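Consider the tokenized backbone below.
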């Protein structure tokens, strides 16, 4: 059975990023962009009424897959 992630964890990621202290201008820009993209992703899933999504088995690899 494929592992699943509740979409509410995306909201938790957004909250976690928002709570991080400011380091410098560049890192703040990257953090704000990450938050904006995660919010768009969460909104997209909400619009489709999706509450959980399957995790890709090879998602941790740079190309996103373990198969050759």
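A designed sequence for it:
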């Amino acid at each position: 059975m494929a592992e699943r992630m509740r979409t509410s964890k995306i909201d938790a990621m957004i909250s976690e990023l928002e709570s991080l202290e400011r380091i410098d201008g560049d890192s703040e820009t990257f953090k704000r962009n990450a938050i904006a993209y995660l919010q768009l992703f969460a909104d997209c899933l909400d619009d489709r009424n999706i509450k959980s999504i399957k995790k890709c088995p090879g998602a941790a690899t740079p190309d996103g897959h373990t198969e050759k």
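The chain has a mean pLDDT of 86.
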